[in-house]
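__Protein archive entry__

___
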Amino acid sequence: MILSPSPWWSTIPALGAALGYALLALRPVRLKPGGVNLLMLLVWLLHALALASGHAGKPVRFGFAPALSVTAWLVFTLYAIESRLYPQLRARATMVGLGAVAVLLALLFPGTPQQPSASPWLPLHWWLGIISYGLLTAAVLHGWLAQRAEAAMRQARPGDVMLPLLALERLTFRLVGAAFVLLSATLLAGWWFSEHLLAQGWNWNHKTVFTLLSWLTLAVLLWGRRTQGWRGRFAIRMLYAAAALLLLGYVGSRFVLEVILSRA
């Protein structure tokens, strides 16, 4: 098992971020809305500092847990923006729980040393993939909230999701569309770099296969939504399937290599 201690300059902000996430998850009733917003900003900054300091060492380390941590930070960023636009959106406990787990995992599993990039443009492929991870994860969380709202409506009981169901569905599929665009750009960038920069040709490994399957699932879902009016549980389950395939593409394969097989 690859379990390396993180340096102190990334450990301190990471622990601070995890503590802040825990405080937010407890829903501090004594804090006024301004105090909660200030705490969210502090947690966001500490998490960002932990991510930045985690890449300050030489050589740069990366793996499944840092990828999850970046994804959680992006999701938290989206939630912070959305909570200003839609105050009825109540998903803070879920968001901060994801953030706390991801930060602590990145401390325990900081990843493996990465080789220097053959081109300064190669990190573009990485960033496109990570942002598409974040957008799709946010879409999954919105879809889950939409399912809860729909279940409460079917059972004629008051739900804890205050945002209207149609608004939640619109937000969900806007995020799905954005994730699909970025995932398409990720695949195109990966193909171009493999063919023209690395001269290795298309590499049919686990990451490529699962990512392509996720892309195809999203394409079918968006097509069905636009032409057949797919919605509700069927559409959300397709979204879950696409997200699971994308998760297996990088995070799952790296988890197997780093933790189970103890290989870089």
